[in-house]
Amino acid sequence: MKRGIKHDFSLLALLLIPVGVSLNVVGYQLSTILKLPVFIDQIGTIMVSMIAGPWIGLLAGLLGNVVNGMLNPIAIGFSIVSVSVGLVSGYFSKWRFYTNIFGIIIACVLLTIVQAFSAAIVTVFLFGGVTGAGTDLITATFLATGRELWNSVVSTNLISGAVNTIINFGISWLIIRKVPDRFLIKLNYGAPYIKKEVNVNG
Amino acid sequence: MDSRIGNLYPSSKFTFIILIILLSMLVPGFIFQYMIFLFIFLISLFSGTAIKFLSTFMKSIPILILFIFIFQVFLIVNEDSQQIWAFIHFSQIGLMTSLTMTSKIVAISSSIIWFFQVTRVKDIIYALEQSGVSQKVTFVIASTIQLIPQMLNLSRTIADAQKSRGIETEGTLFVRMKAFIPMIGPLVLSSIQQIEERVLALESRAFSSKAKKTSIYELRKQKIDYIIVIFCILVLIVYIVWRIKL
């Protein structure tokens, strides 16, 4: 199966983008309904990037934040975070990190780092260290203990990012396990998640 | 949206907010940027979206601005910080930083809110198609905006169905976390089934064909659209020339 930026945009993969974006929104809504302390709003991006590759993941992340930005313009500033998460997690899927437990652990750690640093760059440069969410209290606590702004923002994002990545990834992995094989086989990056042994070239 | 401003061609409104964003980044200080907020509010009065504009704005921006002030003025230690109590400082530099920063955030975000409130998504997609963007891209944008409310409704139905079958949605954190999978699983699986059907439907209507397609919905550029675009470009050029000469 041919992969790469020219071959990834099949119609099936393109139609996955709206589903991924709406899953992000639904995940966010459900986590408020269930009163969870973390916001599970990246399931769609991670799931789509796992089965449809880095470029579709990147687009799903970008579009999700732009659509959110219609109501809350701050989200547009943070689109770089979901774009990098989609891209990086798509490459991990391409390199088959998600098929064994060690790969999954390494991927989660790296995803957390990517998420934390991209979020920290946006937070510090555009919003002076503030995100307008509950995690600001953690940043404030770090600042009060005398740490510098960069240090506090990155530490906050590493803590909240680790929890978020593990939950988002765990849920998308569980969902992909339940997606039927005949759908996965049509996607460029779906082959590693097929339950039966199938010979696929590439 | 049916006002005179709402019926303008999307690209002329887009040029206008690009001008505002550029100006609010180029102009030093913070008074001009705060004036832009009042100016956008006035425009949204004329376009009949003032109440919607204010409620959207109030939902997200003020809390962010408040936090920025608290962080920059009282918490971050600058060279001129004076201790007030324990870890709380007061800093003049921090006050200036937060004023310039928040003024830009206010100006840019209010113009973006205004743009999306006076422009129909249908118009944006039509204008994108006319300017040569691939139909695949515009289709993805359009179906995303359509699909989100549908999926939200479906997720509510699924949540009710699962509750009636005895899934616990209240209790300890672990119990609530466990409820997440049975609620979101059926949603994904049913939407994947829908995708397969939609691919067949689209392909049978020659979606991937390279031929030029016509649109049943039409939007024409009026004279005022050209005037607005030329005016915006002129303002930017005049401002840049004036700054260089100064």
UniProtKB/TrEMBL annotation, chain A:
Keywords: Membrane, Transmembrane, Transmembrane helix
Domain of life: Bacteria
Segments traversing the membrane: 46-67, 74-92, 98-117, 124-146, 158-176
Protein name in the entry: Membrane protein
Source organism of the structure: Oceanobacillus sojae
From TrEMBL, chain B:
Keywords, comma-separated and alphabetical: Cell membrane, Membrane, Transmembrane, Transmembrane helix
Annotated protein name in UniProt: Cobalt ABC transporter permease
Cell inner membrane in keyword set: no
Topology within the bilayer: Multi-pass membrane protein
Subcellular location(s) per record: Membrane
Keyword Signal among UniProt keywords: no
Segments traversing the membrane: 12-30, 36-54, 61-78, 84-116, 224-242
Domain of life: Bacteria
InterPro entries in alphabetical order: ABC/ECF_trnsptr_transmembrane, ECF_transporter_component
